[in-house]
Each structure stands twice: as structure tokens, then as C-alpha cells.
Amino acid sequence: MSKPKSKTEKKIDSNICRALNNVCEQTLDDTPGFQWLTHQANYTNFPASLLVTCVFDTEASLSAVDKNKLQARIQSALLKIGVKFKTVGKQVVLDSEEACERDNNGSWDDRLSFRKELAVPRNRPTH
Q1: Residue 97: helix, strand or coil by DSSP?
Q2: What three-state secondary structure class fits 50?
Q3: Does a cis peptide bond (omega within 30 degrees of 0) precede residue 47?
């Protein structure tokens, strides 16, 4: 996914980072197995392209988490900065270190580059 280029895109990305950092700190404190989160976005199709990946240590930790609660926490933090998901269920995904190690030899770059295909497609034609 593309990096923010314009001043406006950089400001939006910075605000997203701050909001998600707060979510990350809170989730580290109260969610067993949670490790970290990251986001990706293509700013030519924002916010539909925004994708947040939450990473847990194991598949067992991942399956024990209340996904709806975590999605709501992320959605709430982003709404405070004016970012609204089009489909939160598709734009907040859960993953694990265990699965990355198994499927991608521990390469999060490879694993996340595949994820960009999960973003919500543009709803209007490109010219």
C-alpha cells in the first residue's frame, strides 16, 4: 500500500498512528496474548483501504479474544479523529505470530503485503 505523500495524508497517518498507539497500549494491558498492531492504507481510496492488523502470540490467544470488543475499541479510537471504517469486520483483522511463522517463515513483510488485497475495493470507476 502506498505511503502518505501529501501533507494532508501525512497528518491523517500521524493521527491514525497516535490513535492506534493508544489502543495498542490499552490492549496490551487487558488482553492476554496480544502483541502489537499495525495499519496499512492506500490514501487514494481512504478510508475504505484502511486495514488494521492485530497480532497475538498464538492461535489459541487469538481464538480466545472477543473480536467484536477489539474492533469496537479500534473503531471508537479512530472515530475520535474523524476516521470511519466502511466495513469494520473486513478492515480489522486478527493474526498471530504463530501463523506468520508457520505460513510465511516469520516474515511479516510478506504476510502484510498479501493483506492489502483484503481492503475494501473502490466503489467508483477509475479513469
Answers
A1: helix
A2: coil
A3: yes
| Per-residue cell: 78 | 479512530
CA distance 111 to 109: 6
Q: Are 24 and 17 in contact (CB under 8 A)?
A: no
Q: Which fold has domain 7-114?
A: GMP Synthetase; Chain A, domain 3 (3.30.300)
Read off the amino acid at residue 127: H
Instruction: Output 71-75 pairs: Cβ under 8 A, ≥24 positions apart.
Output: 73/23, 73/26, 73/27, 74/20, 74/23
Q: What is the mean pLDDT of the chain?
A: 89
Q: Where in the chain are the domains? A: 7-114
pTM for this predicted structure: 0.87
Give the span between the Cα atoms of 72 and 125, in whole angstroms.
31
CA-wise closest residue to 70 among 123, 113, 28: 28
Distance of alpha carbon 86 from the chain centroid: 13
